[in-house]
Every structure is written in C-alpha cells, then in structure tokens.
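User: Thanks for the earlier help. One more: Sulfate transporter family protein. Can you show the sequence and predicted structure together?

Assistant: Of course, both are below.
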Amino acid sequence: MLDAAVKALSQILSPPMRTILWRSIGLALVLITVLAIGLQRLLSWFADYGEGWAEAMLGPGFHTSLHILSWIISIAAGLGVVLGGIFLMPAVTSLVASVFVDDVADHVEREHYPAERPGDALPLGVAIPEGIKTALLTILVYLIALPFVLFAGAGFLIFFIATAWLLGREYFELAAMRFRPPAEAKAMRKDNAATVFTAGLFIAAFVSIPIVNLATPLFGMAFMVHMHKRLSGPRPELIEPARKTGMPVV
C-alpha cells in the first residue's frame, strides 16, 4: 500500500500529468470560489435581515449597538466561509475527480500496467453523479460532526475518519468501474472494506494539507488504480500466454 502511495505521488508531478493537474486545480478553485461567494452573500443577508428584525423588536435606540453586532457577525461569517472552504475541500475534490477520472487512470495504466487490458472510459453520466453523491454525503456527514468540534477536537477526528471512508469509497469505485459494472465494483469495495478504508486514510491525510490538497483528485485516483489492480488478483491476459508457451508466470 505504501508503495502504491509513493508511485501515485511521483506520477502526479510527471510531465504527462501536469496538464491534468492544472486543469483540475483550476476547476477546484472555480468551485471553491463560487461556493465561498454564495455562502458569504447568504450569511451577509441573514446578518442584515437579523439587524432589521432586532431593531424593529427593540426600538431605534439600539440601532448603533445592533449595527456593530451585525458588523462583527459579518466578519465572523467571512472567516467561517474560509474555514468552511477548507472543510469542504473533500467534497470539492470529489466533484473534480469525477471529471478527470479517466484521464488520470489512463496515464497510470499506460505507465505501470502496459501489458494489461486498459480500462473502459466511464461515461460522464456515471462518473459525475457518483461525485455529486459523494460530495453531498460529505457535506451531510460534516454537518453532523460539526457540533463535536467543540469537544476536545473530537470533531476533527470524526472529520478525518469520515473523509477516509468517503474518499476511499469513491476513488476505489471509480477505479473499479473502469473494469466492472457499477454493482460489481461496489460489491468488491464492500468485500475489501478494511483495505479500502486504510487506503482512504492516505487520501484523507493528503486532502488535509492546504494548497497541496488541490492535487487530491490526481493522487486519490492514481493511488486507487494501483489498489484495484492489486486486489483484483491474477490477470488472465498475462497468465494465458504464459501457459501456452510454458513460461513461468511473473
């Protein structure tokens, strides 16, 4: 598993991957920016609306105090959007990964498994819904875990474990679905749940590093291509020619 992680890390910086890297970073930044602007405007609207409602309830004598409070809340909301963008990075990378899954997998398979049958490209109608489902599930889990952040960092541990499970699950299934029907890919993931979760810990650690985490779609996908290959067992397309020629299987 560590060897697979090292191979994935080394390949995401290779010349053939750089174009995909810049495209994925660009898409991630666009999604984060849109999300941040939307949240900031929504929170600012709530602050302004709350100020008007409170002034109507308490009277004009509280106008200055309420205006200062609204200003403080707006600043806190802005900081909250920044922190929210950090916590929502796994959700963003899930969407980005669903767009570039085949580009990354093709490079990994050509470089490390040239003698094997390449995987079939996933239709966007299959890959993108998987990314959207993972992103929405990530947001839901994070909202549930958010209250626990106040309890001695328990929330951060929940975030990390949830990220490992969610991203490990998505990236492995995307890699497996290039060779198997979706139902079979999901069944394979369940049969190897402990291994996939452990591999997901590597991806969770990667996505927790600011700036570097923009490359998570490439690292996660490349890593899980290796993991799927290893969990798939013997490859018939390599074994059969060896049997016919009498040569030992490597």
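User: Great, one quick takeaway?

Assistant: Residues 236-250 have pLDDT under 50 and may be disordered.
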